[in-house]
Amino acid sequence: MVDRLLYPVMMFSVVVALASCGKADLKKVSSQIAAKVNGDEISVHQINSAIARSNNGAPDQAKQTAAQVLERIIDQELLVQKAREAKLDRDPQVMQEIEGAKRQILAQAYLERAVSAAPKERPEEVKEFYRRNPVLFERRRMYRFQELAVAAPQGKLDALKAEAAVAKNLNDVAGWLKSQKLSFNVETSTKPSEQVPLEILPQVSDMKDGQIAVFPTPHGASVLQLMQSQEAPLSEKQATPIIEQFLANRKRIELAQAEVKKLREKANIEYVGDFGTTRPQTTAQPGSSSATASLFPGRDEGKIARDLSSGPR
Questions:
Q1: What span, in angstroms and rounded, lies between the C-alpha atoms of 157 and 265?
Q2: pLDDT tens digits, residue range 253-266?
Q3: pTM of the prediction?
Q4: N or C: which end of the chain has fewer CB within 10 A?
Q5: How would CATH label the architecture of 135-231?
């Protein structure tokens, strides 16, 4: 965002500097240009910013990563040039999308500044989190599941649970679902403890290999069979940097939510037209849009899964 907003100012500064610089300065400025596309320059700073945003800057592959990112920026620049030639930047829909992106970037920038003063995690907080979550650390396991993500009305869940309780495997459950004309998807996955939804993890951690369990989902149920599991514990030393990152992220989220709440309380918000009759309802939870949503639709930034899965082993 800052790069794009400041680009005209930066270019003006470069022009002024070039007017009074010598050959040495000119060479230094030129070295900051990585490529030119039909005369338009791509700077090294653009490449570095793109690498930083993608979090893919492995130190031992820095040169290769930079080269790959440059090629992507070149492709993007070619498309942008053609879009401008076609005057797409003046298209009302495109202008609306650009304005929406700008608003999102500004809102995010404000929140980033608002949460920058989040207090650092205390050692006792880390120890307590490790102690209170043994299934994530001391008793951490790798699970291989077979899952039926079922679209079913709430009235069918008791019957589904009864059928799953006597089934030998998921094929038996699938046959029953077909007889009831209930749609479902079949998925197989391998997940560590931290990628299992925290609300069902205690029950999953107690399951035996081959056992079947039914868990409600927003639009039905998930029928899980634990095919195999094995221990994969993390010591407190291994877990400490991961827990620190998770707690820091959680504090940032809490501060951001508190800041938005404070702003709403102070603001004069008036709902008009069709929106004036009722106040907005709570937003839907992630992953609830699919009628046959899996229990493992992806990682939630509010969960520890993101940090555990990317942390050191």
A1: 41
A2: 999 999 999 999 99
A3: 0.58
A4: C
A5: Roll (3.10)
